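Morning F.,

Quick status update on the modeling queue. The single chain you submitted on Monday has been processed. Sequence for confirmation:
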Amino acid sequence: MSDWNIVPIAEEHLEALARVDALCFSDPWSHEGLQAELTSDTACFAAAVKNGEAVGCAGMHCICGECYIDKVCVAPDCRRQGIAEALVGYLMEYARKQQAEFITLEVRAGNEPAIALYAKLGFASVGVRKNFYSDPKEDALLMTKTFLYDD
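Structure tokens below.
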């Protein structure tokens, strides 16, 4: 049994998640940026909570049957425990409940662990966004998972 769980993001998670985001990204989201997602009609954001502290999050926006993952981050000292997989799984389940046609994301072309995780979860590389990232400058792989439903 894990010592963490996945929950819908809440106000009490935001300060810790802003810190985690700053550890993970060169252009992190602020507390206020994360807070705005609490009231967005199109957003689904989840937090990974370990020993009462938010240690990761993932979020996406869904509209018109299309879902776009904006963020997946896990504190460096909490990686390789299945947290990112559980967070993305939470988003995928939400997308299925919304009857989404697909879910898509961008990932740094050099982020091999993340690319392997997304491939394991059924995402396929569908394109490249040249020089999408800065600091450092890098291409993004566009990865998509399509959902099929029985009518």
